[in-house]
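Repro case for the chain-ordering regression, as requested:
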Amino acid sequence: MESLAWTPWRPLRLHTDISAEILTEQLDGGQSFRWAAQPNGSWTGVFGQTLARLRTGKQGLEWSAPVADAAAEERLCEYLDAEGKQARLAEALPWRSDSVLRAAMAANPGLRILRQDPHETLIGFLCSSNKRILQIRVMVAALASKLGRPLGGGFYALPTWAVLAAADDEILRSCSLGYRAAYIRETAKILKQRPQWAADFAKLTTPELMATLQELPGVGPKVAACVTLFGFARLESFPVDTWVVQALSSAYGLKGWKPERLEEFGRLHFGPAAGLAQQFIFSAARQGVLPAAPALETKTRPKSRK
DNA sequence: GTCCAGGATTCAG
DNA sequence: CTGAATCATGGA
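-- result from build under test --
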C-alpha cells in the first residue's frame, strides 16, 4: 500500500462547536456510510472525491487531509456546515412547544445534517433497505475498494454509474449487496446515460425531486427522502424509517399511522427544517433517550411502571 | 435454527 | 386501491 502524506492537524472553526459524541453521531449515525473510526479515536472518511481525517481536540474540531489536496478544508467547511446555516434552522424548530423534540435536541446538541454529494448519498441509500447501518457501511466500502478510483492510502472514491453498470456480476455479488445489487445495476444503467443528472435534479422543486428519484429502481419514498435531505440539502424533507415510525408512535402517540401520513405530519409539524428535526428524533430514538407519550394520550393505565 | 435489519417491489384481495 | 409476501445477506 502506498504511503500517504497528511497535513498536520489544524483547527476547523465551526459556527457551532461539536463534541466527540456528536461528531460520532454525525459521521456514523446513518447519514453517511463512508467514515471509519481509527484506533486513536480520529475518523477517516471520503465524501465526494475528498479524503479527510477529523478529530476533536482541546481546541475543538480538527482536520487533516492529503497534502496534495489544497481544497480539502473548503470542502470540509461546506460538508460540516461550518458557516452555521443550520444553527438558525434548529433555533426555529418548534422545540419551545414540543417537549419531545426539546429532549431529542438536548440529547445531541449541535447535531447537523451533513451536506453530502448526491452520488454517494444515492448509492448509500440504495444499499440501505432492510439493512443495519454497520452492514450498509461494509457494502459501500466494498463497492468503493473493488470498483472505485484510488485516493491513496488504501482509500477509494465511489465508482461512477458507468463503472457500476459495466461491473461483473461476481464483483457486485462479492459486495454482499444481496437483492440490492439489482437496484444498483438498474439505476446505474439509467444514470450513466446522463452524467449531469445531479445538476439537473438539483433544479427541481423538492416534490418534483422526490418523484423523479422514485422513478429509479430501488428508490421508494424513504430512500428518496434521504437522498433529497442528505444529498440535495432539502432540509424540509422528512424521511420516515422504522425508527421514526416507532418514535412518532410512542412519543407522539401516533399509533397505527402509515408512513405516508407520518411524513406529512413531520413536514407540517416541524416545518422548513423537518429533516433536521427528524435527525434529532432518529438519533434520540436509536439511543433510547426519547420520552414516551404523555400519560393523557395513553388509553392504558398511566401508572403502570416496570 | 430463528429473527431482524434507515425498504422496495410484486402480488393477492 | 390497500395489505401481505417476497427479496439476499449477515449478525445476534
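Ordering looks correct now. Chain A is about 45% helix and 10% strand.
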